[in-house]
Every structure is written in structure tokens, then in C-alpha cells.
Amino acid sequence: MTTLMQFKDVDVHYGPIQALKKVSLTIDEGEIVTLIGANGAGKSTLLMSIFGQPRISSGEIIYRGEDISQKSAHYVASNGLAQSPEGRRIFPSMSVEENLLMGTIPIGMEHAEKDMQRMFEMFPRLLERRNQRASTMSGGEQQMLAIARALMSRPKLLLLDEPSLGLAPIIVKQIFQILKDVASTGMTIFLVEQNANHALKLANRGYVMVNGEIKLTGTGAELLVNPEVREAYLGGH
Predict the structure, then answer these.
(1) Of 84, 64, 93, 59, nearest to 76 (Cα)?
(2) Using one digit for the tens of pLDDT, what is the confidence trace for 163-212?
(3) pLDDT one-digit tens code per residue, 22-59
(4) How many CB atoms lie within 10 A of CB 162?
(5) Which pLDDT score is estimated for 91?
(6) How far apart are CA 194 and CA 196, in angstroms?
(7) What is the pTM (predicted TM-score) of this model?
(8) Contact 192, 43 (CB under 8 A)
(9) Residue 11 parent element (H or E)
(10) Domains of the chain
């Protein structure tokens, strides 16, 4: 397998506070890799460090053979990395269609119409809401929009930060089915999630982060039956 991204001994500080400690993990092409951990463990910090917010203190973030840890967010986004951020961060006053077009900024409008039709096929609900203001949609619909907007930049690696956060269980199931469908197209996915059960069932491989450090790693199936993981994240059963 070809390694698409690699974190090598990554440290991150917020002032005197160390948020990430010697974090190393790899994401291979075509894989779904998940990073699970409690709220405040450092998962989102790791994801945002890819875009330099925050900058890492030491270590390397290697993407397609290049250290991108000191590159600009625009450089990173225009080289095949797209994020669906925590809290969705859609543009509330814009329509669904306008939000999708914002996803093309890193690559330009050349494929916009074709890709938008593809998003409407993948997310039929967005087609129904095409001209609706994004702020008037449900949380689940807004999450679909955030994922679709990220896909509009034709990423080589899709980064997802807590896509199930704040959603009803039935909607969470729908979102994870959508991610499964996206992965079936060959998309490489790095998924940061608190919902360990759904994330590990979906993922090829997983990492467990505790207080800014990677404590466990294995296949999704291995981690699902790991006693420590079950006790800490799956309610012990």
C-alpha cells in the first residue's frame, strides 16, 4: 500500500501547555483510518495541525512525500486535502448550491457543474434543498452539506472531524452509511470521532488517543473487541 499521509513524532503546544506528545500515525491510500478518544484528548488539534492551525512544535506531517507542516492552509487545501470541520461550519445565509460552490475554491470551477450533480446523486436531500438557505436545514442535512462541500474540491484525502456530533442516533446511522458509500468510490478517509462504535465498525484501522498521546492501535475489528476500548468508549459491552 502507498502511504498518503504520515505524522512523525508530532508535538503541539498551546503556549506552555503541550496538547500533542510524539504522535505518530499513518494513512494509506484507499483506507478509512479513525482516531478515537474522549473529548479534549487532542483529536481535533491533530486534524487542524495539518492546516497549520496550530503549527506543530516539532515532528513532521508528511503528505505524498512532502513535509507540509509549515505550509499555508491554502497550499494544503489546493493539494488534495479537504476537511468537513467539527460543528459543520457551513455558510448559513447561503443556499445549498452556493455552499457547494464554495468547496471548489481550492481547485477552481472547471468541474463544478458536473461535481454538483454528483453530490446531488450522492445526497438526494441536498437536491431537494438546492435553493434553500443552509441555516434552515436540520443538523443532519447540514452535516451532509459539509461533507459534500468538502468533496467538491476533489480531495485525495477527506478529513472528517466529529461528523456525528449532536445528531440523533438514526441520523448518525445515515451519516455513517454515506461515509461507507463515499469510501466505496476509493476515497481515502481520516475520521476523527467520539462515537467509537460507529467509527471502528467503519474503519480499516484505528488509533486511540488519550491526553494527546496515541495509546492503542489496530484494525477496527481488533479495537472493537479490545477490553480497554470497550471499557472506556463502548460502555463495557
Answers:
(1) 64
(2) 888 888 988 998 899 899 989 989 999 999 988 999 999 999 999 999 99
(3) 999 999 999 999 999 988 889 999 999 999 989 999 99
(4) 23
(5) 79
(6) 6
(7) 0.91
(8) yes
(9) strand 3-14
(10) 1-79+156-237 (3.40.50.300), 81-155 (no CATH)
Query: Is 64 within 8 Å of 20 (Cβ atoms)?
Result: no
- Would you call 45 helix, strand, or coil by DSSP? helix
DSSP 3-state assignment of 207? strand
The C-alpha torsion from 90 through 111 and 122 to 164, rounded to 10°, is -30
Instruction: Report DSSP state, residue 101.
Output: H
> Which 3 state secondary structure label does DSSP give 27?
strand
Instruction: Give the strand order in the sheet containing 66-67.
Output: 17-28, 3-14, 58-63, 66-67
Please give the C-alpha separations between residue 159 and each of 125, 140, 188, 192, in angstroms, as whole numbers.
22, 18, 9, 8
pLDDT of 157 above 70: yes
Bridge partners of residue 61, in order along the sequence = 7
Closest CA to 37 of 171, 159, 161, 175: 161
The grid coordinates of residue 119 equal 453530490
